[in-house]
Amino acid sequence: MNTVGSKSSKIDAFLKLIVCASLISASGSVSYYYLAYRPAQDALLLTERMQAERRREELHVGLEKRADQQRIIMDREALEERRAAAAHDRYEACMSAASLSYDNSRASSCKRLAEKAAKDRADCIAKGQLSAEGCKIIHELRDASSACSLPRATLVDLDDQLEKARKRCSEENKAGL
Question: Domain total for the chain?
Answer without folding.
Answer: 1
